[in-house]
């Protein structure tokens, strides 16, 4: 996905994590805190997925690279919000590489809507209006025919 500022994901892991966060399947993530700095931002979430029981507090850390015009997202689970906030307070601590999240099966239309910057209730292009056929001079209606 290309962001409005023109930046792109730096790798497949970043694109996968961003897709997971945008779709938030089944309301899996509850955002507890989000902070933006000049080139870094992080989001603390609570993960409701059963597989996240050992580390239900997730930190999604994003770093922008203005030279390459890319951004990188990484995530890590913590056993408590306090442990996650401890890492956030000192981001010089190592942040282990995580695996690519399991793919979430969604339709192409759902994925497109999730990536759309528009509100889901508003269509990007309004549908064509439907008009009833007009009667001819004789009063007969000929659907699908133009005037000759």
Strand content: 15-25%
Compute the number of structural domains. 1
Main β-sheet, spatial strand arrangement: 1-5-4-3-2
SSE topology string: EHEEEEHH
Shape: elongated
Rounded Rg = 24 Å
Question: Helices and strands: which structural class?
Answer: alpha+beta
Low-confidence stretches: 96-103
Count up the helices: 3
How many strands in all?
Answer: 5
User: What's the N-to-C terminus distance?
Assistant: 49 Å
Give the rounded overall mean pLDDT: 75
Helix content: 10-25%
What characterizes the major β-sheet?
5 strands, mixed
Region (Disordered): 117-148
Please tell me about this protein's structure:
Residues 117-148 are annotated as: Disordered. With 148 residues, the chain is an alpha+beta fold. The protein has one domain. It is 20% helix and 24% strand. The protein contains three helices and five strands, in the order βαββββαα. The protein has helices at residues 12-23, 81-89, 108-115, and strands spanning 8-9, 29-36, 40-47, 57-65, 70-78. Strands 1-5-4-3-2 form a five-stranded mixed beta sheet. It is elongated. Mean pLDDT is 75; it is low at 96-103.
């Amino acid at each position: 996905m290309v962001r409005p500022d023109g930046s792109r994901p730096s790798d497949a892991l970043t694109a996968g994590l961003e897709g997971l966060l945008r779709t938030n399947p089944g309301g899996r993530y509850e955002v507890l805190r989000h902070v933006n700095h000049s080139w870094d931002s992080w989001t603390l979430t609570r993960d409701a997925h059963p597989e996240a029981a050992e580390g239900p507090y997730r930190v999604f850390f994003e770093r922008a690279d203005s030279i390459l015009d890319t951004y990188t997202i990484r995530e890590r689970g913590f056993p408590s919000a306090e442990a996650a906030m401890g890492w956030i307070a000192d981001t010089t601590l190592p942040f282990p590489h995580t695996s690519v999240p399991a793919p979430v099966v969604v339709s192409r239309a759902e994925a497109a809507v999730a990536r759309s910057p528009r509100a889901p209730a508003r269509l990007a292009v309004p549908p064509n209006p439907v008009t009833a056929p007009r009667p001819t001079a004789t009063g007969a209606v000929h659907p699908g025919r133009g005037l000759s």
